[in-house]
Amino acid sequence: MPHGDQPEATRLWVAPVFDERPTAHEPGATGRSVVPRRTSPDDHAEPARVDDPWLFITETILSPDGGSWVDGLHREHELIWTGAGALTVEADHQLWTVPPGLAIWIPAHTRHHVRAAPGTLTHVTYLAPQRVDPPWAAGIAGITLSRAVHELVLHNKAAVLDDAVRMRLQQVVVDLLVPVESASLDLTMPADPRLRTVAEAIVADPADDRTLGEWADTLNISSRTLSRAFVRETGTTLTRWRILVRMRQALLEISSGRSVAAVALRLGYANPSTFTDLFRQTLGHTPAAYLKSFVTT
């Protein structure tokens, strides 16, 4: 019987390219980078990766040059996490930051975008939906990736195990998956093409401090129109949205070993104390305490 993981399943993305071309099975596609919501299981989903009777397998993707790509529709749930580097995942118009200690749960048949910084090591754990169906499985969620889960998943991937032992290990992993209890890490991305231009520019450069008026001039619309439209599509103001982007970028950089002072300066804050206070106001903890809130044993 084949075991529930594949040691050879390590993919190398030399230069991932974000494919913006519409496809035949996406009616009305405009070619813009908008993430469709979950689709029917019959809509060209890729072949199943997890063989009976196993619960999951894990693949590893190395991105030396970084980049972004559209992941295909998968029949399995996905748990996306990083072993090194910075990673963001967009699905259902939500943008998720993925620092160490956190994984993003993507339900089966949900198209998503993945963005990786150079040198990022991305792990994708595929879980069979007919055998793994926790109460929260239907929605996208941040999942606490404890040290135990991290090590057990990698052990399942690399080790030669007796079938019964492997099945017990996989069941323990599934039982240990817990939705994150910290402040929400999702960020709503606007669908309107004009607002999307602003949002993508800020995500690409969180230190961009152009005012609402300057963005309105760029889009050739009034400040009032931009303000109302942004709140309507994202649920928050442009200023607040930019702060959230900065805090999430800070999580990635601090968790990668950069000092708080260096990260604050890069994100446009001359005073690290101001940055730390803003981080606490936004997410309820200092950066160090926030990371500890979901990096557990």
UniProtKB/TrEMBL annotation:
GO terms for molecular function: DNA-binding transcription factor activity; sequence-specific DNA binding. Residues 17-48 are annotated as: Disordered. PROSITE patterns: HTH_ARAC_FAMILY_1, HTH_ARAC_FAMILY_2. Residues 39-48 have a biased composition (Basic and acidic residues). InterPro entries: Homeodomain-like_sf, HTH_AraC, HTH_AraC-typ_CS, RmlC-like_jellyroll, RmlC_Cupin_sf. Keywords: DNA-binding, Repressor, Transcription, Transcription regulation. Residues 196-293 form the HTH araC/xylS-type domain. It holds the Pfam family HTH_18. Gene3D superfamilies: Homeodomain-like (1.10.10.60), Jelly Rolls (2.60.120.10). The keyword Transcription regulation applies. This is HTH-type transcriptional regulator RipA. It comes from Sanguibacter biliveldensis. The lineage of its organism: Bacteria, Bacillati, Actinomycetota, Actinomycetes, Micrococcales.
